[in-house]
Amino acid sequence: MKRTFLTALLALSLLFGSACGAGMNPQGDSSNEDLTVIGMCQVGAESDWRVANSESMKAVFTEERGYRLLFEDARQKQENQITAIRKFIQQQVDYIVLMPISESGWDSVLQEAKEAEIPVILVDRMADVGDESLYAAHIGSDFLKEGRLAAAWMEDAFREAEGPVRIIHIQGTLGSTAQLGRTAALEEAVEAHENWELLTQLDGDFTQAKTYEVMTEYLSSLPGSGDIDVVYCENDNIAFGALQALEERGYACGREGVSVITFDATRGALAECLNGRIALAVECNPLLGPLVETVIQDMEAGRTPDKHSYVEEQTFTAENLTKALIESREY
Ligand code: AHR
């Protein structure tokens, strides 16, 4: 299969008149024939988490470690991801690693990969396909569980609240597993608490810039400075945008003010948590490269990997954080 990849690349480069297609070794160095070729299709670089996730993959899948990594950044567009997968199929890579931007819309292209006998490993988010055999394994976070950890914290923090608990909810990319799980957890908690009031749901698309924009617009539409108890942000970059918008309009964030909840717990968010601007950070671990490699090694050895693997995650507040812990963190 590895040799076929070079033949396919050569054919492609002749076809398109280029000697340096994706992953092509310009010298045609035959010593690289033994490398395992991974076609990886990343969502984009929308968040600090995503950047750490890409770095984790790139650190593992190096030539020194026996891999050739063909890395495509889809710039947050599903059509770019589908185009990249089709290119990987043409190139006859050994494995396709896909971080699906959203859950739906994958059946046809994953069927094409299956027909080409290229195993697909889903990383981070899931793809909602009718036939489970379209992917070999999925490695990521349990987003619903993450959301439930946040809801449990809120329940504790507002147990004594006499009046309504007013919540602003800022969502990540709509239709992504991370958004669906974290949203479902909040919605079920709001249902279960009579005094929890969802003021609005805004689309922050997991980015700081979009969140700052939609949050500023929403806050401007409130009469005076309306009461806000919680801002439930579906990732750290959303939290950064929300903090900026809130504070610019005079809201205090922290113990005596708005409780900002975030997901990811990257270093920047943990620092805000330690200094009190963020009340709770729920961890989402982006360091998935080694786990993806384990799945590939299993498959290379003829073993069937677990269909779903979830990473262990925890929560952080100012109480269980230290400067040293934040500094020692890899992301
Ligand atoms: O799918 C994981 C989510 O996507 C992370 O929480 C977020 O930061 C990223 O963009």
Report on this structure.
The chain is 40% helix and 18% strand. The protein is elongated, with a radius of gyration of 22 Å. Residues 10-30 have low confidence and may be disordered. The protein starts with a helix and ends with a helix. The protein has 2 domains: 5-139 and 287-300, Response regulator (Rossmann fold); 143-284 and 317-328, Response regulator (Rossmann fold, 3-Layer(aba) Sandwich), CATH 3.40.50.2300. The chain has 331 residues and is α/β, with parallel strands linked by helices. Alpha-L-arabinofuranose (AHR) is lined by residues 46-47, 49-50, 124-125, 178, 206, 235, 263-264, 284.
SSE layout:
Elements: H1 2-16, E1 36-42, H2 48-60, E2 67-73, H3 78-90, E3 95-98, H4 107-115, E4 120-124, E5 137-140, H5 143-157, E6 165-171, H6 177-192, E7 196-203, H7 208-221, E8 230-233, H8 236-248, E9 259-264, H9 267-274, E10 280-283, H10 289-300, E11 308-310, E12 315-316, H11 323-328
Parallel strand pairs: 1-2, 1-3, 3-4, 4-5, 5-11, 6-7, 6-8, 8-9, 9-10
Antiparallel strand pairs: 10-12
Alpha-L-arabinofuranose binds next to helix 2 and strand 9.
Task: Give short descriptive properties of this protein.
331 residues; alpha/beta; Rossmann fold; 6-stranded parallel sheet; 11 helices; 18% strand; binds alpha-L-arabinofuranose
